[in-house]
Amino acid sequence: MNYETQLAGDIPAHVFDEDQPRSGRRRGLIIGVAVAILLIAIAAWMAFRGTGSGSAAPMEQAPVVTVIVPGKSMVDQTTSSTGSLAARVEMPVGVVGEGGEVRRVLVQPGDWVRAGQALAVIERSVQSEQIRSLAAQVEVARADAKLAQAQLDRAKALVARGFISQADIDQRTATRDAANARVNVAAAQLAEQRARTGRLDIRAPAAGLVLTRNVEPGQIVGSGSGVLFRMAKDGEMEMLAQVSEGDLATLRAGNSATITPVGGTEQIAGRVWQVSPVVDPQTRQGIARIAIPYNRAIRPGGFASATIVSGTATAPMLPESAVQTDAKGHYVYVVNADNQAVRRDVEVGQVSGKGVAVTNGLTGAEHVVLLAGAFLAPGQKVKPEVRKAS
């Protein structure tokens, strides 16, 4: 046994048993401290990252919106109005002659007729017999005139022989002239009767469209029967547009207009042909008469709306999607320099296929939200993407 072995053998066994637990506790403490330091480092790194990117986080969360800079475009200045429809030149047709029993009615409402065309035929048996009588009288007068001319010719042949005096010649000449005059009188009476008989038929005073019919076969008509037919000359119609006093001052004859009859969607082009020189003192409105070519959708007595172009101006033009409406009126959202959505109340003018004309509230240089305006709130941060105006 050497010295080391002897020394080790001299150390009690419990000394080695106490050193082993103490070494394990030391290792556990070291590991715990290392884990704590690692956690602190991770927390510090996360805090530093959050502080460094705090200014960019709101922009990353802000919604992306498409904006447009509308500028200014030439737009029509329009006036909207309502009014009734009527024939531009309405022609009431009644009995011109003596009247009588209506035998036939030849037209219906909606028919086109030419000038002088018969609309209804009145019974004329008595007038026909009168025409025959007068025609016979004309023949009698012509026969008398022919006989008087023959007698005058024979008398002139006997004057040279001295059998007949010049006084007889003058007498026979007067007889011949009177006979010729009676022929003319009889012919005039015949023509008058034929004209009277022709006036029994109710005829169109001009070409146009039949609007109404108030007569039936078998009806007795006369000068007091009133209007039997109503016609629109050449089928032309018009709208009597009620226009406010202020708007009336901007209208001129020749202004174009678009008419939409109530109950329909068809838009009909027209043109102002007369502007009322007076204003109703009660309603403060005047009448703009708009000429309309024939269209089946136009019915006299109906109602329609009209948009009258009174001039042109420059104004921002926006797509309809950019303009919102609520109880306060029309508005748009404008993105300011801080990328905030700001509500801007506007007034709109004509709406057409090109878009909505903004007559007040915008200069045209703003960044207007094109879409999604209904989902924004005033002051909300956004990320604008500019789209070029078309």
TrEMBL record:
Domain CusB-like beta-barrel: 241-309
A cellular component annotation (GO) from this entry: efflux pump complex
GO molecular function: efflux transmembrane transporter activity
Pfam families linked to this entry: Beta-barrel_RND_2, BSH_CzcB, YknX_C
Keywords: Coiled coil, Membrane, Transmembrane, Transmembrane helix
Coiled coil region boundaries: 131-158
Segments passing through the bilayer: 29-48
Every CzcB-like barrel-sandwich hybrid domain range: 99-226
Origin superkingdom: Bacteria
All copies of domain YknX-like C-terminal permuted SH3-like, residue ranges: 318-383
Matches recorded under PANTHER family: HLYD FAMILY OF SECRETION PROTEINS, MULTIDRUG RESISTANCE PROTEIN MDTA
Family of the protein in this entry: Belongs to the membrane fusion protein (MFP) (TC 8.A.1) family.
Name the record gives this protein: RND family efflux transporter MFP subunit
Lineage, opening ranks: Bacteria, Pseudomonadati, Pseudomonadota, Alphaproteobacteria, Sphingomonadales
